[in-house]
Amino acid sequence: MDKKQHIAIFTTASLPWMTGTAVNPLFRAAYLSKDGERKVTLVIPWLSLKDQGLVYPSNITFISPSEQEKYVRRWLEERTGFTFGFSIRFYPGRFSKDKRSILAAGDISEIIPDEEADIAVLEEPEHLTWYHHGKRWKIKFRMVIGIIHTNYLEYVKREKKGMQAFLLKIINSWVVGIYCHKVIRLSAATQDYPKSIICNVHGVNPKFLEIYKEKIEQQQNGKQVFTKGAYYIGKMVWNKGYKELLKLLHDHQTELAGIEVDLYGNGEDSDQVQEAAKKLELAVRVHPGRDHADPLFHDFKVFLNPSTTDVVCTTTAEALAMGKIVVCANHPSNEFFKQFPNCWTYDDSNGFVEATCKALAEEPAQLTDAQRHELSWEAATERFLKVTELDQVPTSKPSNIPQKNFMSTSFNFRKNMEDASAYVHYVASGSEASRKVFGAIPGSLQPNEQQCKELGLAIPAAKRGSRK
Q1: pLDDT of 158-168, one tens digit each?
Q2: Higher-confidence residue: 122 or 408?
Q3: Where in the chain is the domain with CATH 3.40.50.2000?
Q4: CA–CA dist 213, 210 (Å, integer)
Q5: Which E.C. number(s) belong to this protein (predicted)?
Q6: CATH, domain range 6-202+412-455
Q7: For 52-88, what is each residue's pLDDT tens digit?
Q8: Pick the CATH number of 206-375 from 3.30.110.10, 3.40.50.2000, 3.40.430.10, 3.40.30.10
Q9: I need a labelling partner for 351 at 20 to 30 A (CA). Which of 11, 40, 89, 228 fits?
Q10: What pTM was estimated for this model as a whole?
Q11: Which phi and psi angles does 366 have, rounded to 5°?
């Protein structure tokens, strides 16, 4: 194997779907490959045209993986100004309407040839391994790192499905323990995992830091840089903070009289959010979603984000990078942001009112060079390499077997238990009946023939046999 580290980053979404697991792994791949010291491959889902129509916005579709790759690279280059040397490969994916998520079809570990299988980064490892049936990740790759993006338990709890949340917690711990050597939680807002590390290994699109530079230059030329008040941007579904924000505005209309708030987003609950906003005496305007880097947002001074379902909110980081004041809940998901002077947290509804009124009346503090760096993808990449110890990984796999007999016995017992547990999951995930019980998409044990052709994969024997 090449002496350079081979890092394969597997994720659960891809542009043009503007979701965190599409954007952040893309930037991670780019910045890990930037210095040329390691080989990086980003592995993203390929959807059939029918599923593309359900997921991708503005009727954007692709007839081939190469066409989508061009779109992804162009989007990245427009935002960074760089051409990056990482590879992009696709795995067959299917869209689950009930989960609003893309799920893998077949054994996606096979996308990386055995001779390149060194380090795997699983962005949303629980999501990627719930229905995994194939080669065991820990055996194929020297190191497997899971990055926990999503607070799945919170979403289920909000739907008042207590037993489902309990089972999901157990299943998540099971599959992540089986398949990952290291686990990174972006914040303490996620489910806890044994031996996991809390570290925000995400940065912001460099465009937002450029916007801040432009604002400072305008300010130095005597211009008033923030001429608009408060806003919020996010996927327009109730559990993304809209429910909390509209309730806060409704309950404190007297104290907040005279303020104006603009909401931007697209989503299943857009019509309901619009109706709720119309019932307020305050000036709350609802708009379609836009790119947060759009000039439309540059002049807003205050970003309101009461959401507590995020793990680390990307739009909060972007607002801070643009030099805005952020008013957000005192919640574990916002712990990383508390180091910045423009992050103002509140503990209750009265605190929200006080922080919002004060933010609208005052000017944001200027960011230091160190603070701007801390928000960047360069700093996020440094944190990732440090916390995973990839900056000092030996070229050969270290021995994990302790020397003392009693320790060796304990280690072997744990290893045997894990092997047995992995075998149980392998058997269960190989049965269509059990897969259906746990919510897998029917027929996703193997990719369909059309996707195999589009991706240049061998058509599974079972699929070939069905044509006879």
Answers
A1: 776 777 888 89
A2: 122
A3: 206-375
A4: 5
A5: 2.4.1.241
A6: 3.40.50
A7: 999 998 889 999 999 999 999 999 999 999 999 999 9
A8: 3.40.50.2000
A9: 228
A10: 0.89
A11: -75, 145
